[in-house]
Specification:
Helices cover about 30% and strands about 35% of the residues. The longest helix has 18 residues, at about 20-35. It has a four-stranded antiparallel β-sheet. The protein has a three-stranded antiparallel β-sheet with strand order 4-5-6, covered by helices on one side. The protein is globular. The model has no long low-confidence stretch (mean pLDDT about 95). The relative contact order is 0.26. The termini are far apart. With about 190 residues, the chain is an alpha+beta fold. It is built from four helices and nine strands. It has helices spanning about 20-35, 60-75, 100-115, 145-155; strands at about 10-15, 50-60, 80-85, 85-90, 95, 135, 160-165, 165-175, 175-185.
Length: about 190
């Protein structure tokens, strides 16, 4: 009997996940947007800062991805993530700003280079500069609501700092993204 080859593919992305206090603050912001503007797509994933946009990966090759991320995290040192105020990508996305500090930018760039070994690329975003952020509203926020919501959030105060101590692999399960694995920094 010939062995069967697993050709199934799953969707993943790689991110930083803030601590529970910041998660709760993000949840309250998402709930406000849902209540005021009937936009709830941001609930499909935990609050996060994307390091590698969603990509498809063969399930049979997942051990190689896990190994690479483990080795990558072993070389990383924890660093402070600073968040202040809000930003947007017109006409649908509102987010909490993340300071583009050198440790975060360097780590994100190194991660992208490491993932090229496994042929993981951000093919849809390759020509855009990395802009770290934590989304609180996007795809289902209609254009007229976006401008109303942005008027509400653009001057609002939000200020937090927290220590990034791991990268996370998130996997799409049905319609939501869930944490698949955590890779603590060891450096």
């Amino acid at each position: 009997m010939a062995s069967e080859i697993n050709h199934s593919v799953s969707k993943y992305f790689i991110a930083l996940i803030p601590p529970p206090k910041v998660q709760e603050q993000a949840k309250l912001l998402k709930e406000e947007i849902k209540a005021r503007y009937n936009a709830s797509a941001s609930f499909n994933s935990p609050a996060h800062i994307t390091l590698m946009m969603p990509f498809e990966f063969k399930d049979a090759k997942k051990p190689a991805l896990i190994g690479l991320l483990g080795q990558f995290a072993d070389l990383q040192k924890s660093f402070v993530v600073s968040q202040k105020g809000f930003g947007c990508f017109e006409p649908r996305v509102i987010f909490v700003n993340v300071s583009p500090d050198e440790p975060l930018l360097t780590m994100q760039k190194r991660l992208g280079l490491a993932l090229k070994e496994l042929r993981v690329f951000e093919k849809n975003y390759k020509n855009q500069a990395y802009r770290p952020h934590m989304t609180i509203a996007f795809r289902d926020l209609r254009k007229p609501q976006f401008y109303e919501a942005w008027d509400t959030f653009k001057e609002r105060v939000f200020e937090e700092s927290w220590e990034a101590r791991a990268v996370y692999l998130l996997k799409r399960n049905d319609k939501i993204w869930e944490i698949d694995q955590e890779f603590p920094f060891e450096g």
